[in-house]
Amino acid sequence: MSESLIMNAPLTAADGEPLKKKLAREQRLKQFKAIALVAPLGLFLLLTFLVPITSLLFRSVDNPEVVTALPHTSQLIRSWDQRGLPSDAVYSALAEDLARAKTDGTLADASKRLNMEISGYRSLLMRTARKMPLHVAPGESVRDHFIQIDERWGDPDHWHAIARNAKSWSPYYLYRSLDLRENKSGVPELTPVNERAYLSIFGRTMWMSLWVTVFCMLLGYPVAYWLANLPKRQSNLLMILVLLPFWTSVLVRVAAWIVLLQSEGLINSGLMALGIIDHPLQLAFNRTGVYIAMVHILLPFVILPSYSVMKSIPPSYVKAAISLGDHPFAAFWKIYFPQTLPGVAAGALLVFIMCLGYYITPALLGSPEDQMVSYYVAFYTNVTINWGMAAALGSLLLIATLALYAVYSKLVGTDRLSLG
């Protein structure tokens, strides 16, 4: 009986505490220490990555100007059936809001926002606000007083603009970034051809990024293959030349390319001195110059991941295929090249994503027709101070980047499954 009691008794530590309880406490302590070590990194990512991205996405649909300046009008106009003109109550609310906004100083932002919808709305609001407060006799129509101030208050389109902005969020900036606009029914439709701009800008950005990626792949893959098959000492020495651009500022490298590529630059002067050309080639301030500079800057991002994958491939695979009677090129294409695809795909994705956000190189070396989306993000941020439009363009770039990464992950995952 005593032996069975001893067998069923809980195990204890040297201090008499149950061993299970003590181990659980030590496990919790280790987890707390691990969390404490990771917490600074998590806080850093939260403040420098998640918060800015969340703010960017929120700003792209944030629409507080009209609701802040015209709160009563925004509330009443939501019940408007969008047919004809609003009721006298809406006109009265607008008169009250304009009188208050004139003293509060909130009308400027609302007029700027509505002026994006209809040109001339700013002057309409400012002119009407100067007439406030209205003195309406009993039995008179507030609507008639507004139309007497300016006949545009009798135009339903101007009221549709207020109705579309009578909420604190709006897809307006996202629509504009895609050359869309809302019709009177609230359904998005393409803007007229002469007003479209951003779809061609996004198309140009994708097209230029694609070609830079292709050029980087064509130049970077042979260099990576060469470095991977050289003796280690020579490979390490040449790798320094590949990494050398990382030690120089992008701005300095672009300025150097301007010196090299301009009409009186070293390249044109050398070609003319050799008699190869008889007049300078236009290599700078056009797309050719942008391609040359961007490929030079981004080439290491293809070479490095491709090189790391190639170094892990045993050369005996290709030698075995050749010894079994396969042609060297066929052995390379069927045996070696498929094993390098993960590094090649990673380098291509990295270059393409970095190209999407390039600003300095096209701005300094390109013409106005060579500017990418990031140029217009900077323009709306620094020149026109239109944060909503800048955030919308940035959000679409972010979505495109995430979509590309998702496609890459799916392709790599599928490839791994098929190999397995």
TrEMBL record:
It is found in: Cell membrane. The keyword Transmembrane applies. One of its GO terms (cellular component) is plasma membrane. Its main location: membrane. It is a multi-pass membrane protein. Coiled coil: none annotated. PANTHER family: ABC TRANSPORTER PERMEASE PROTEIN, INNER MEMBRANE ABC TRANSPORTER PERMEASE PROTEIN YDCU-RELATED-RELATED. This is Binding-protein-dependent transport systems inner membrane component.
